[in-house]
Write a structure and sequence with these properties.
Arc Repressor Mutant, subunit A; 10 helices; 262 residues; 2 domains; alpha+beta
Length: 262
């Protein structure tokens, strides 16, 4: 268990084993370390050199024989903290380099019902944000246990707001009313018959991400691209501003939901 934790902290498996072996022995020759750890002497020697470079063991000599001692395990913590500090100091420069790159969009595909759920889960990973969505409410097939008992409560808990544009049909109005009563959500309806044929859900979220869901095909796609995000957000905001406010939306319901989670 200790060796596993040391590996998670950055040591290689053989480094972790040899380091803990020396800790147990107090001080040891290469022969003793190899015998107790069951690692070949040639491998022990190379690994000891790596551990010395990391400052985790020291070497002294007893006559002509080298003796190895383990340094205080606190040095592992100090080493990790030093690396973390160095990384934090270099982060602004690294981010500025990344922002200069004209990167291609990152596209991930997810198949099956769990793949569709992965798009929903991804929208929950950034707190205090807003999701913009074109949403064919009646066609959602995730199951009430997932959507109403998991996703919606988690979204409210994390204060993730949402605005939805949906086809104006009675089923959608009833669904939107229930959603607005339970979640921090606003909905506006499109009466154009062409829009009623929408059978995809499109989510715009996280400042750079776009989620596309085809419920009939059980297919989810996540696209990460600032340019695509900004373009679709502009289209959504234009549509939103042209559509009338939903009269069924009650501001008090929204405020009650906010009060419950604060």
């Amino acid at each position: 268990m200790i060796n596993k934790k040391l590996v998670e902290a950055g040591l290689e498996e053989k480094e972790a084993l040899i380091y803990t072996t020396i800790l147990e022995l107090g001080e040891a020759t290469i022969a003793k370390i190899a015998r107790k750890s069951a690692i070949k002497r040639s491998t022990v020697y190379d690994t000891l050199e790596n551990l010395k470079k990391k400052g985790l063991i020291s070497q002294t000599n007893y006559g002509k024989r080298p003796i190895f001692l383990a340094e205080n395990p606190q040095k592992l913590v100090e080493s990790l903290e030093k690396k973390k500090k160095m990384l934090e100091e270099s982060m602004p420069e690294l981010l500025s380099i990344m922002n200069l790159l004209d990167k291609k969009p990152v596209i991930r595909y997810f198949e099956g019902l769990n793949g569709v759920k992965e798009v929903f889960e991804d929208t929950l990973r950034l707190k205090d944000q807003e999701i913009l969505t074109w949403f064919p409410y009646p066609n959602i097939n995730l199951g009430e246990d997932y959507f109403w008992k998991h996703y919606i409560p988690e979204r409210v808990k994390r204060k993730i707001w949402a605005r939805a544009i949906v086809p104006d049909i009675q089923a959608n109005r009833e669904y939107a009313k229930e959603l607005e009563e339970k979640a921090i959500t606003k909905t506006r309806f499109v009466t154009d018959s062409a829009f009623s044929g929408l059978d995809l859900e499109i989510k715009i979220y996280g400042k750079t991400k776009l989620g596309i869901i085809s419920y009939e095909e059980d297919l989810g796609i996540i696209i990460e691209s600032p340019k695509i995000f900004n373009g679709l957000k502009a289209i959504f905001e234009t549509m939103w501003n042209l559509l009338p406010e939903n009269k069924n939306f009650q501001e008090k319901n929204l405020q009650n939901t906010v009060n419950e989670i604060e």
